[in-house]
Amino acid sequence: MYTTYTDILVPFHDVDSMQVAWHGHYVKYLEVARCEFLESFNYSYQAMLESGYAWPVVDMRIKYIKPLRFGQRVRVQCALREWEYRLKIDYVISDAATGERLTKAYTIQVAVDLATQAMCFESPLVLRESLTRKLGHLPG
Protein backbone atom coordinates (compact mmCIF):
# COMPACT_ATOMS: atom_id res chain seq x y z
CA MET A 1 0.00 0.00 0.00
CA TYR A 2 1.26 3.48 -0.84
CA THR A 3 0.92 6.18 1.86
CA THR A 4 1.78 9.88 2.18
CA TYR A 5 1.43 12.45 4.98
CA THR A 6 0.50 16.13 4.73
CA ASP A 7 0.55 18.61 7.61
CA ILE A 8 -2.09 21.35 7.72
CA LEU A 9 -2.52 24.19 10.20
CA VAL A 10 -6.21 24.91 10.87
CA PRO A 11 -6.59 28.63 10.02
CA PHE A 12 -8.78 31.18 11.76
CA HIS A 13 -11.00 31.69 8.72
CA ASP A 14 -12.04 28.00 8.82
CA VAL A 15 -13.45 28.05 12.37
CA ASP A 16 -16.71 29.16 13.96
CA SER A 17 -17.23 31.22 17.12
CA MET A 18 -16.35 28.14 19.21
CA GLN A 19 -12.97 27.95 17.39
CA VAL A 20 -13.98 24.61 15.85
CA ALA A 21 -13.40 23.97 12.15
CA TRP A 22 -16.65 23.93 10.18
CA HIS A 23 -17.35 20.38 8.97
CA GLY A 24 -17.35 21.40 5.30
CA HIS A 25 -13.72 22.51 5.47
CA TYR A 26 -12.62 18.93 6.11
CA VAL A 27 -13.27 18.26 2.42
CA LYS A 28 -10.75 21.01 1.61
CA TYR A 29 -8.16 19.43 3.90
CA LEU A 30 -8.65 16.07 2.18
CA GLU A 31 -8.22 17.78 -1.19
CA VAL A 32 -4.98 19.47 -0.13
CA ALA A 33 -3.61 16.10 1.02
CA ARG A 34 -4.92 14.30 -2.09
CA CYS A 35 -3.17 16.84 -4.37
CA GLU A 36 0.15 16.20 -2.60
CA PHE A 37 -0.52 12.45 -2.71
CA LEU A 38 -1.11 12.48 -6.49
CA GLU A 39 1.88 14.76 -7.11
CA SER A 40 4.08 12.34 -5.14
CA PHE A 41 3.87 9.85 -8.01
CA ASN A 42 3.75 12.47 -10.77
CA TYR A 43 0.06 12.16 -11.59
CA SER A 44 -1.19 15.57 -10.48
CA TYR A 45 -4.48 16.97 -11.73
CA GLN A 46 -2.57 18.81 -14.45
CA ALA A 47 -0.88 15.55 -15.50
CA MET A 48 -4.31 13.88 -15.55
CA LEU A 49 -5.64 16.53 -17.93
CA GLU A 50 -2.56 16.28 -20.12
CA SER A 51 -3.01 12.49 -20.28
CA GLY A 52 -6.59 12.92 -21.50
CA TYR A 53 -8.46 11.96 -18.34
CA ALA A 54 -10.45 13.65 -15.61
CA TRP A 55 -10.87 11.92 -12.26
CA PRO A 56 -14.02 13.28 -10.56
CA VAL A 57 -14.81 12.29 -7.00
CA VAL A 58 -17.92 10.10 -7.21
CA ASP A 59 -18.16 9.02 -3.57
CA MET A 60 -16.92 10.38 -0.26
CA ARG A 61 -17.39 9.46 3.37
CA ILE A 62 -16.19 11.37 6.41
CA LYS A 63 -16.44 10.19 10.00
CA TYR A 64 -15.94 13.04 12.45
CA ILE A 65 -14.40 11.67 15.65
CA LYS A 66 -13.14 14.82 17.41
CA PRO A 67 -13.22 18.44 16.27
CA LEU A 68 -10.34 20.23 14.60
CA ARG A 69 -9.59 23.55 16.30
CA PHE A 70 -8.10 26.89 15.36
CA GLY A 71 -4.30 26.79 15.35
CA GLN A 72 -4.13 23.01 15.57
CA ARG A 73 -1.57 21.32 13.36
CA VAL A 74 -3.07 18.18 11.89
CA ARG A 75 -1.50 15.43 9.80
CA VAL A 76 -3.52 13.94 6.96
CA GLN A 77 -2.51 10.42 6.00
CA CYS A 78 -3.50 9.31 2.49
CA ALA A 79 -3.38 5.61 1.67
CA LEU A 80 -4.08 4.12 -1.75
CA ARG A 81 -6.60 1.30 -1.26
CA GLU A 82 -7.73 0.60 -4.84
CA TRP A 83 -6.33 1.62 -8.19
CA GLU A 84 -7.22 -1.02 -10.81
CA TYR A 85 -10.74 0.19 -11.63
CA ARG A 86 -10.99 3.38 -9.62
CA LEU A 87 -8.94 5.39 -7.15
CA LYS A 88 -9.99 4.76 -3.59
CA ILE A 89 -7.99 6.75 -1.09
CA ASP A 90 -8.36 6.31 2.66
CA TYR A 91 -7.58 9.23 4.96
CA VAL A 92 -6.86 9.60 8.64
CA ILE A 93 -6.62 13.09 10.12
CA SER A 94 -4.63 13.08 13.36
CA ASP A 95 -3.26 15.68 15.72
CA ALA A 96 0.30 16.22 14.47
CA ALA A 97 1.73 16.56 18.00
CA THR A 98 -0.03 13.71 19.79
CA GLY A 99 -1.05 11.37 16.96
CA GLU A 100 -4.61 11.30 18.30
CA ARG A 101 -7.03 10.23 15.57
CA LEU A 102 -9.57 12.97 14.82
CA THR A 103 -11.25 12.01 11.54
CA LYS A 104 -11.45 9.09 9.12
CA ALA A 105 -12.54 9.39 5.51
CA TYR A 106 -12.31 7.99 2.02
CA THR A 107 -12.84 9.25 -1.49
CA ILE A 108 -13.49 7.33 -4.68
CA GLN A 109 -12.58 8.76 -8.07
CA VAL A 110 -13.15 7.26 -11.50
CA ALA A 111 -11.39 8.01 -14.76
CA VAL A 112 -13.36 9.80 -17.45
CA ASP A 113 -11.99 9.96 -20.99
CA LEU A 114 -12.00 13.66 -21.85
CA ALA A 115 -12.35 13.01 -25.59
CA THR A 116 -15.51 10.90 -25.28
CA GLN A 117 -16.75 11.92 -21.81
CA ALA A 118 -17.15 8.19 -21.12
CA MET A 119 -16.39 6.71 -17.73
CA CYS A 120 -13.57 4.16 -17.91
CA PHE A 121 -14.21 0.76 -16.41
CA GLU A 122 -10.55 0.28 -15.59
CA SER A 123 -7.84 2.75 -14.67
CA PRO A 124 -5.89 4.06 -17.65
CA LEU A 125 -2.39 2.80 -18.40
CA VAL A 126 -0.90 6.21 -17.50
CA LEU A 127 -1.91 5.73 -13.84
CA ARG A 128 -0.35 2.26 -13.69
CA GLU A 129 2.84 3.59 -15.29
CA SER A 130 3.05 6.49 -12.81
CA LEU A 131 2.64 4.16 -9.83
CA THR A 132 5.20 1.70 -11.22
CA ARG A 133 7.76 4.46 -11.81
CA LYS A 134 7.33 5.64 -8.19
CA LEU A 135 7.18 2.27 -6.45
CA GLY A 136 9.09 0.00 -8.81
CA HIS A 137 5.98 -2.19 -8.99
CA LEU A 138 2.23 -1.89 -8.81
CA PRO A 139 0.78 -1.76 -5.29
CA GLY A 140 -1.08 -4.73 -3.99
From TrEMBL:
<dbReference type="InterPro" id="IPR050563">
    <property type="entry name" value="4-hydroxybenzoyl-CoA_TE"/>
</dbReference>
<protein>
    <submittedName>
        <fullName>4-hydroxybenzoyl-CoA thioesterase domain protein</fullName>
    </submittedName>
</protein>
<comment type="similarity">
    <text>Belongs to the 4-hydroxybenzoyl-CoA thioesterase family.</text>
</comment>
<dbReference type="InterPro" id="IPR029069">
    <property type="entry name" value="HotDog_dom_sf"/>
</dbReference>
<keyword id="KW-0378">Hydrolase</keyword>
<dbReference type="Pfam" id="PF13279">
    <property type="entry name" value="4HBT_2"/>
</dbReference>
<dbReference type="GO" id="GO:0047617">
    <property type="term" value="F:fatty acyl-CoA hydrolase activity"/>
</dbReference>
